[in-house]
Amino acid sequence: MPDPANTEPSNAPALTIEGLRISAATEHGRVDVVDDVHLTLRPGRITGLAGESGSGKTVTGLAVLRLLAEPTLRVESGRILLGDLDLARLPRGELRALRGRRVSMVFQEPMTSLDPAFTVGTLIGEVLRRHLGMDRRAARERAVELLDRVGIPEPEKRVDSFPFQLSGGMQQRVLIAMAVACGPDVLIADEPTTALDVTVQAQILRLLRSLTDDGMAVLLVTHDLGVLAEHCDDLVVMYAGQVVETGPVDDVLAAPAHPYTAGLLAAVPSTARRVERLATIPGTVPPPHLLPAGCRFVARCPHAAPVCEEPVTLEDAGGGRSRRCARAAELDLEGVGR
Amino acid sequence: MSTAREVVLRATGLTKRFTTRRNVLGRAVERLTAVEDVSFELRAGKTLALVGESGSGKSTTARLVTALEKPDAGTVEVCGTEWTALGRSALRRERRRMQMVFQDPYASLDPTKMVVHTVGEPLLVHEGVRGQERDRRVADLLERVGLSARHLHRYPYEFSGGQRQRIAIARALAAGPDIIVADEAVSALDVSTQAQVLNLLLDLQRDSGLAFLFISHDLGVVRQVADHVAVMHRGRLVESGPADEIYESPREAYTKSLLAAVPEVSPSRRRERAGLVTESSTGEVVG
Ligand SMILES: Nc1ncnc2c1ncn2[C@@H]1O[C@H](COP(=O)(O)OP(=O)(O)OP(=O)(O)O)[C@@H](O)[C@H]1O
Ligand SMILES: Nc1ncnc2c1ncn2[C@@H]1O[C@H](COP(=O)(O)OP(=O)(O)OP(=O)(O)O)[C@@H](O)[C@H]1O
Ligand SMILES: [Mg+2]
Ligand SMILES: [Mg+2]
Question: What atom of ligand 2 comes closest to residue B232's alpha carbon?
Answer without folding.
Answer: 21
